[in-house]
Specification:
Layout lengths: L1 H6 L1 H14 L3 H15 L5 H20 L3 H17 L8 H21 L3 H15 L5 H18 L5 H15 L5 H21 L2 H17 L4 H17 L1
């Protein structure tokens, strides 16, 4: 059965949509995603239907990369509707559906950000984070992290530093112990920003907290930046003592 799955036409098409996206061929990815969806969304085979629905996610991301934000929002809403109101056998798996829906809402928030609808974007972000912050599945973790990173980007325009620090703290404390290299790769710049803020403020107490976070990350990450940041903190603390 697995052999058939790997060789099915819909599986190949889904794989090709992903490959096109990763090659930055967004127009081609969208065209193939549309073809896949139209051909298989009403299939009697559940795997083919799953491939058709998955294609919408790659279409959304491609539209965002092309800055076609309004079209991306429409596709996000379609994904949310399909996984919320679906009545096919595979739609019964509520846990999986929630993961897809959270990811779609994060993409919608990103598209709203592109349209400069910041308040609407923040409202969705807060909803995604509140619901998914304690979930440990990879799809939700990525959606929550991306939502928080987007919130941090929006708050860069906020003169209130404390609001940004709240987001930075939430990201670093939630994801510092992740074993996912891709997640840690995105967390490291966040911790760097925290380090630079506390160095600027000469806040030694919070800098110690940043050190512990970096030490936790260093156990799980091969990044050369982390030891460099720890060394930077050492030098700053030494100069501060002088």
């Amino acid at each position: 059965m697995m052999f058939w799955f790997l060789k099915s036409k819909s599986a190949k098409m889904a794989g090709n949509v992903q490959k096109l996206f990763l090659k930055d061929s967004y127009h081609e990815a969208i065209e193939l995603a549309d073809n896949l969806y139209c051909q298989y969304i009403d299939s009697e085979d559940s795997q083919e239907r799953a491939h058709a629905k998955a294609a919408l996610t790659w279409k959304t991301t491609s539209l965002i990369m092309l800055e076609e934000y309004q079209n991306a929002i429409s596709v996000c809403e379609k994904i949310i509707d399909i996984y919320t109101h679906g009545n096919l056998p595979e739609d019964i798996h509520d846990g999986y559906n929630k993961k897809i829906i959270r990811a779609a809402y994060t993409d919608k928030a990103r598209a709203l950000y592109g349209l400069k609808e910041y308040n609407k974007s923040l409202k969705i972000i807060d909803s995604v984070v509140d619901e998914g912050i304690d979930c440990t599945d990879e799809l939700t973790e990525v959606a929550v992290l991306e939502a928080l990173l987007l919130k941090y980007e929006i708050l860069q325009m906020d003169p209130n530093l404390s609001n940004r620090l709240i987001v930075l703290n939430k990201i670093s404390f939630r994801f510092q112990l992740s074993d996912n290299p891709k997640i840690l790769e995105q967390v490291i710049p966040v911790v760097r920003d925290m380090m630079l803020i506390f160095i600027t403020l000469k806040d030694i107490k919070n800098l110690h907290i940043v050190r512990r976070i970096l030490e936790n990350i260093s156990i799980r990450s091969k990044s050369e930046e982390v030891p460099a940041f720890l060394s930077y903190i050492d030098k700053f603390e030494e100069s501060f003592k002088e």
